[in-house]
Design goal:
By secondary structure, the chain is an alpha+beta fold. The protein folds into two domains: 17-110, no CATH class; 143-219, no CATH class. The protein has helices at 2-10, 66-71, 81-91, 98-106, 113-123, 127-141, 146-155, 159-170, 174-187, 191-204, 207-218, and strands spanning 19-25, 31-32, 35-36, 42-50, 53-60, 75-76.
């Protein structure tokens, strides 16, 4: 009986809290976790940990939703933006959902974001990670990333990543997106890429797109 009592005493009645968090500089009116948050340039990034593994990532603006934030009992830490991005990069492959980690990197408003996303977009072993990184490169860098998006369309081995890169191209400013989509429709060797480029081209409503579609239909 004594042994049993000792063992029971060694077991905590409640599991230790496993949410850690820190503040990151971010953009105004960020929409994350399915909610529109009030305007703020600071987010709290909260990560649920199982040892060194990331089980879930959430973002909060505590002044807008103090009850939800406090319920998690997040253990707050202090990290610079550089330290935050480095931590996330080190945990991309230690996450139940690596896409969440890529998104967390992208939500930083910092000059390190694009350099951090580039190798993920180019060469990460998981196609979902490459696809998510490509999406955020298009969102963060706009027309500056046009060449990188085209590289993904031409060179990525996964067709889903190619298609996602076509979508990212369609989100560029119109004066950049439309010529690139037209070129893909006319010249790309992949029929699927041509079809997706034509689909997104049609969504632009640009007169050049209408002319191309008409010429295809007339053949």
């Amino acid at each position: 009986m004594r042994l049993i009592l000792i063992l029971l005493a060694a077991v905590p009645l409640f599991a230790a809290e496993n949410w850690i968090g820190w503040r990151i500089p971010s953009r105004d009116n960020v929409r994350v976790n399915g909610w529109n948050y009030c305007t703020s340039q600071i987010l709290v990034l909260a990560a649920e940990m199982d040892g060194d593994r990331v089980e879930e990532i959430r973002f909060f603006q505590p002044e807008c939703e103090p009850d939800t934030f406090s319920d998690l009992k997040v253990q707050m830490q202090t990290k610079t933006p550089e330290q935050s991005i480095d931590w996330l990069l080190a945990h991309v492959d230690k996450a139940d959902d690596p896409d969440e980690v890529v998104t967390a990197i992208a939500l930083h408003e910092h000059e390190r974001v694009v350099p951090a996303l580039m190798p993920l977009a180019r060469s990460h072993k998981e196609s979902d990670v490459r696809r998510q990184a490509i999406f955020w490169l298009g969102q963060k860098a706009g027309s500056k990333m046009a060449g990188e998006l085209r590289r993904a369309v031409d060179e990525d081995p996964d067709d889903r990543v190619k298609e996602h890169a076509v979508f990212a191209i369609s989100q560029l400013p119109r004066d950049r997106a439309v010529p690139m989509l037209i070129e893909l429709v006319k010249t790309h060797r992949s029929r699927r890429v041509r079809e997706r480029a034509l689909f997104w081209l049609a969504q632009t409503g640009d007169p050049r797109a209408i002319d191309l579609i008409e010429s295809i239909l007339m053949k």
